[in-house]
């Protein structure tokens, strides 16, 4: 929805070649199959906007939004938003407006709805998104994404971004698709919102693509993705009258309704790169961090891959490494990368990291599923970005699939490179349960008998004989005598 006295500005079409969209997974959907609107997700917005400091909802609109069944209801698996010409709350028209703010907020993804539009002079249906927290300031400093708007005779649908500065210094850019009466049938209206690109489509046909050079933020001039790099939420409404469509006239019939079959959100699910969890114990190349969105699978101080030689579409800086392959480059304070791993066994592991720092040194920490598992691994500068050294510490890990996060926890000026991390389990080859004597004559009861002879009293691999004379090597020697040994 356009606000205040903003008008539609359609930027000239540019020769933009969009990359093939990444594989997206269904993140959330409302099929409107229940008996009533799901108010755990959707919130009714009531009134003329005056209570929100926006009389006429900022556009000189004429409706009063209600939550009454005459204006919004679900029937036969579809949501109906109905505009009526009845007087209510000091207005001459009623309709409905709902949003997901605080219940469904997200950054990036494909947002789509299958809808049949109303029609008539002064009728203005919209499917759109607003920022949840407005981190860059009031409208339109923090952005707006209009997925579908149409007015009056519904022969053209519009997709628009609003950005730049607060009104009246706001800007907009977008596109439109015409050539049919969109009130005569259901169509799927979608926006694909990516870190560097926004594209709009109808029934899968892309009609406009904008790259991040098309938008800006006066509040964050150094951030080329602002203001579209923060959580937004979804809105649906049918307005009556306003600056853009004009007011209803004698040709407008009521009621007019927008029918919504479903609303769906698809997002890129975080997943291991290049396709399977990294095995632990083992070595993990630092540049093989998870696939995912910025600030979900990784965090880098600036956008884009400034190394550009491996995974160039990623934000994380990757360069060619003097030791072969690639390394993460120039990690500044607070940067992190995540790795989906599969830990074979619970236990104590030696964690090693191959690092280099030209001037500052640094500190690296490991988390697993959001829990810190290592202290800071501190190192001095190595005298060059490709002058490598290895630091190590011990960590306790649980078995199973989990997500590691490597974090730069050095000071504000600490900057370094990472080539790889490596995890080796302590006594990895000599666990009692892993020894399989070939003769088939030794079972665990033999081990228990042996331990008991040294004063142990419980049948457990964790037994600590009280005499203090038995250690693991004694057990291994005993097992080896029966034909076993370390795998």
Summed up, the helix count is 2
Strand-pairing-aware structural class = mainly beta
Poorly predicted runs = 1-21, 429-442, 458-470, 483-487
How many whole angstroms does the radius of gyration measure?
30 Å
Note the main sheet: 8 strands, antiparallel
**What is the tally of beta strands?**
30
**Percentage of helical residues?**
under 10%
Distance between the termini: 67 Å
Average pLDDT score: 88
The general outline is elongated
What fraction of residues sit in β-strands? 35-45%
Mind explaining what this structure looks like?
The chain is elongated, with a radius of gyration of 30 Å. It has 487 residues and is mostly beta strands. It starts with 24 loop residues before the first strand and ends in a 6-residue tail after the last helix. It has helices at 444-453, 472-481, and strands at residues 25-30, 43-44, 63-65, 72-75, 78-83, 93-95, 97-99, 109-116, 123-131, 144-149, 156-163, 171-178, 187-193, 197-202, 205-211, 232-240, 256-267, 278-280, 282-285, 298-299, 318-320, 326-331, 336-343, 347-356, 362-368, 371-372, 377-379, 389-397, 400-408, 416-425. The protein contains two helices and 30 strands. Strands 1, 4, 5, 8, 13, 14, 15 and 17 form an eight-stranded antiparallel β-sheet that branches. Strands 2-7-16-9-10-11-12 form a seven-stranded antiparallel β-sheet, with no helix packed on it. Strands 18, 20, 23, 25, 26, 27 and 29 form a seven-stranded mixed β-sheet that branches. Strand 21 and strand 22 form a beta hairpin.
């Amino acid at each position: 929805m356009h606000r205040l006295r903003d008008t539609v500005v359609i930027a000239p079409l540019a020769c933009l070649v969009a990359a093939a969209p990444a594989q997206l997974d269904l993140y959330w959907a409302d099929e409107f199959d229940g008996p009533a609107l799901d108010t755990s997700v959707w919130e009714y917005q009531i009134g003329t906007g005056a209570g929100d400091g926006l009389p006429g909802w900022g556009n000189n609109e004429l409706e009063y939004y209600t939550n009454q069944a005459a204006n919004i209801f679900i029937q036969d698996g579809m949501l109906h938003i109905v505009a009526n010409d009845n007087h209510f709350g000091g207005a001459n028209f009623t309709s409905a407006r709902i949003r997901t703010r605080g219940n469904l907020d997200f950054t990036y993804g494909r947002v789509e709805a299958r809808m049949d539009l109303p029609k008539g002079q002064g009728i203005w249906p919209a499917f759109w998104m607003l920022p949840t927290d407005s981190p860059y300031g009031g409208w339109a400093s923090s952005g707006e994404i209009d997925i579908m708007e149409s007015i009056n005779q519904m022969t053209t649908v519009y997709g628009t971004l609003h950005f730049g500065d607060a009104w009246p210094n706001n800007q907009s850019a977008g596109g439109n698709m015409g050539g049919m009466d969109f009130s005569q049938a259901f169509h799927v209206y979608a926006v694909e919102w990516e870190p560097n690109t926004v594209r709009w489509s109808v029934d899968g046909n892309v009609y406009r693509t904008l790259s991040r050079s098309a938008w800006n933020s006066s509040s964050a001039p150094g951030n080329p993705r602002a203001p579209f790099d923060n959580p937004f939420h979804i809105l649906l409404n049918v307005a009556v009258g306003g600056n853009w469509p004009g007011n209803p006239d004698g040709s407008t019939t009521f009621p007019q309704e927008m029918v919504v079959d479903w609303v769906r959100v698809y997002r890129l699910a975080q997943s291991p790169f290049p396709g399977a969890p990294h095995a632990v114990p083992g070595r993990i190349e630092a540049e093989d961090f998870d696939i995912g969105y910025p600030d979900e699978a990784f965090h880098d101080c600036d956008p884009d891959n400034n190394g550009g030689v491996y995974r160039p579409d990623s934000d994380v800086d990757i360069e060619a490494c003097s030791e072969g392959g690639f390394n993460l480059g120039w990690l500044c304070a607070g940067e992190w990368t995540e790795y989906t791993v599969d830990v074979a066994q619970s236990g104590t592991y030696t964690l090693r990291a191959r690092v280099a720092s030209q001037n500052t040194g640094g500190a690296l920490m490991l988390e697993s599923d959001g829990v810190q598992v290592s202290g800071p691994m501190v190192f001095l500068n190595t005298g060059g970005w490709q002058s490598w050294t290895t630091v190590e510490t011990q960590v306790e890990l649980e078995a199973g699939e989990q997500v590691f996060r490597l974090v730069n926890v050095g000071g504000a000026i600490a900057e370094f490179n990472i080539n790889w991390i490596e995890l080796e389990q302590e006594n990895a080859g000599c666990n009692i349960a892993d020894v399989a004597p070939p003769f088939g004559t030794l079972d665990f009861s033999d081990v228990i008998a042996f331990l008991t002879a040294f004063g142990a009293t419980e049948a457990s691999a964790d037994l600590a004989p009280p005499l203090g004379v038995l250690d693991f090597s004694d057990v291994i020697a005993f097992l080896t005598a029966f034909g076993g040994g370390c795998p």
